[in-house]
Amino acid sequence: MKNTIFSSSLGYLFEGFIRQKQNEGFSYEEQISRLKNFDKYCLKKNITADSITKENLRDYLTIKETESKNSFYARFCLIRQFLIYMNARGIHVSIPNISISKSKPVPFLMTDEQVEAFISSVDKNPPKRNFNYSVFFRLLCTTGLRVNEALKLRINDYDEINKSLTVIHAKGNKDRIIYLADDMNQLLRTYLNSRKRRSPFIFYGNDINKPHTYGVVSKTFRKRWMQTKFYTNTGKNPTVHSLRHYFVIKRINLWASEGISINSMILYLSKHLGHASPNETYYYYHLIKDSLKIMSTKDVTGKKIMEGIKYEEE
């Protein structure tokens, strides 16, 4: 830990919290700076471990006029994690819940049943000559890739032997490797071997030298969703990006059911999703944690969405 000097009586707790996070694999350099600001606030207000109140937290965890929403969310999630750490140490403090402004809507969180119905709707429609939506949407469900990341994948990005995809120049201009489950790897391999037209892209459009477009994929997602019993004319409906949210929920739910510490796995999930920092993933987790109960206790979708694949005949 470098130059970690805290002045308030909570200093030993800050030190222990940082040490725990670094042992879990987080660098926490940026977070140390934010914790120092909270430390200064506690010193100024003469706050001790036993005197942290909801009023103190409400005062400190208020978005500043000069603060961006992303910066505020990162600050909020960090302090919330610190308070959870305090509770784990036997020091009871209230854990605040983040409130989402109307300008940042809560994403549509698809259930197992909804995803199964959507995939079934996709499978009932024959694949396009240049594009197999059954394969594409399954890839999003099982990897959590961003839509544009999946569309830009090239044949050379796929490693059949190591069962992986390399995402080149993703968000933040960073590369990362995504590993595929055995069934998804087999599905992708079969799909590629079935194609007669040769393109440098895994998912190409009418022009074999260009990837398929986001707009067409989004439109197709909506069409197939409208064919399910869950579509509503008046309520909220998912978008193609909801499949990424679904992947995150499934992954966190799986860890929880297996008794694995979600907190210790956030770093790996953050890297897999291509987030700039674990703070983005913590924010994501706080958004969905209260909705984990909507997931089915019997995980049957993972198997069902891999069934009934049709391949294009060109």
From TrEMBL:
One GO-annotated biological process of the protein: DNA integration
Molecular-function GO term, any one: DNA binding
All copies of domain Tyr recombinase, residue ranges: 105-299
SUPFAM superfamilies in UniProt: DNA breaking-rejoining enzymes (SSF56349)
Matching Gene3D superfamilies: Intergrase catalytic core
Sections of the chain in a coiled coil: none
PROSITE patterns: TYR_RECOMBINASE (PS51898)
Record keywords, A-Z: DNA recombination, DNA-binding
Homology family: Belongs to the 'phage' integrase family.
Protein name: Integrase
Organism: Treponema ruminis
